[in-house]
Amino acid sequence: MSQSLTIRRPDDWHLHLRDGAMLAAVLPETARHFARAIIMPNLVPPVVTAAQAAAYRDRILAVLPEGMSFEPLMTLYLTEGTDPADVAAAHASDLVKAVKLYPAGATTNSQSGVRDFGKVQAVLEKMAEIGLPLCVHGEVTASEVDIFDREAVFIDTVLDPLRRRIPGLRVVMEHITTEEGVAYARAGGPDLGATITVHHLIINRNAILAGGIKPHYYCLPVAKREKHRLALRNAATSGEARFFLGTDSAPHPDHLKEHACGCAGCFTATNAMSMLAEVFEQDGALDRLEAFTSLNGPAFYRLPPNEARITLAKGEPVTYPAKIESGAGPVTVFDPGFALHWSVTL
Ligand SMILES: NC(=O)N[C@@H](CC(=O)O)C(=O)O
Ligand SMILES: [Zn+2]
Ligand SMILES: [Zn+2]
User: Fold this and answer.
1) CA of 111 to the centre of ligand 1 (A)
2) Are strands 96-101 and 134-136 parallel, antiparallel or unpaired?
3) How far apart are CA 195 and CA 197, in angstroms?
4) How far does the centroid of ligand 3 lie from the alpha carbon of residue 286, in Å?
5) Binding pocket residue ranges, ligand 1, CB within 6 Å
6) Which one of 9, 116, 122, 153 has the minimum C-beta count within 10 Å?
């Protein structure tokens, strides 16, 4: 018997589109299935001001293929020099949907991020006042903290004190990877959300390190032990409003992934929905896929869910390209390590 599932068109609440030829190459991979996405601002140089966000939005829309519709939801990269008035104006004009906090040095292109939180207190207070969410890459960067502990330590030593200092600040814990992240998100009120990637639902740290080093499974935050993957599966498939999809699809050309100092990031835009349907089916939770991909994110961001629908159909194993061409060389599509049977049919 063939099976199919119709859900509201999904959105991606954490996406890297890059710029130039890479942008043109990866945008259709997302726009094929997703109506909207929160666009990460970690370009070089970063998207710091409202004017830069408006220009980036125009560059994205300029390379959107004929016949595709897609709405980029822009973000600003928080720096110690960010002007609260510029942030408020960008929000008031409806251009910007969130501000992104990168602790300096935490991840790809985060060197302009925050070192001294005292310097961003005023802008965070302004954001709390106007209800503009702060998207947080939640890892400490101290070299003495083990890389597998950096998320849990961040929650205790940075995120929780920050939320206490600025009551009412709306926060999205981006790409959570630990049971501590799940528990903290669950304990927060309606002003706290958390995105979960597709790849962190599928791999644990063995995928990166056992049987030879696998650079295409390396991302930040790095995948953790199996118990953490299971906690993420439980959260994503629970239907709980605070958890929603942010793929963190993060393309890097293969020559920079397969490198002595390989870049962090998994490229999942191409097969994200097929992988998610497979994962939710494995967990007997297909009836909660729509909440995760299409309902909980808009509700957190106070946007209407999409009216359009997509249909996923189950059949013979799906074929998808192993790599896409990017102008900067091929980009490997994330390989979940098992066959996918669900495809987006319309
Ligand atoms: N997730 C990643 O491993 N990489 C992201 C940055 C980020 O989201 O931390 C990137 O921009 O490549
Ligand atoms: Zn990040
Ligand atoms: Zn990211």
Assistant:
1) 13
2) parallel
3) 7
4) 26
5) 16, 42, 107-108, 137, 219-220, 248, 250, 264-265
6) 116
Number of domains composing the chain: 1
At residue 101, φ and ψ (nearest 5 deg) are: -100, 115
Q: Report yes or no: 232 and 224 within 8 Å, Cβ to Cβ.
A: no
The amino acid at residue 294 is: S
Percentage above 90 pLDDT, the chain: 98
Ligand 2 geometric centre to CA of 114 (Å): 14
Q: What pLDDT, on a 0 to 100 scale, did the predictor assign at position 346?
A: 77
pTM of the model: 0.98
Q: What is the pLDDT of residues 35-63, one digit of tens each?
A: 999 999 999 999 999 999 999 999 999 99
Q: Is the peptide bond before 253 cis (omega within 30 degrees of 0)?
A: no
Active site positions, annotated: 248
Beta strands in the chain (DSSP E): 3-8, 12-15, 36-39, 71-77, 96-101, 134-136, 171-173, 192-196, 243-245, 309-314, 323-325, 330-332, 342-344
* Domain interval for residue 257: 3-344
ipTM field: 0.98
Q: Bridge partners of 172?
A: 135, 193
- Please state the three-class secondary structure of 162-203 as a single string: HHHHCCCCCEEECCCCCHHHHHHHHHCCCCEEEEECCHHHHC
Residues lying with their CB under 5 A of ligand 2, a single-atom ion: 107, 137
Report pLDDT for 326.
96
What is the structure's pLDDT at 231? 99
Q: What local confidence, expressed as pLDDT, does residue 125 receive? A: 98
CATH of the domain at 324: 3.20.20.140
What residues in the chain have per-residue pLDDT under 50? none
Is residue 148 within 8 A of residue 224, CB to CB? The reply is yes
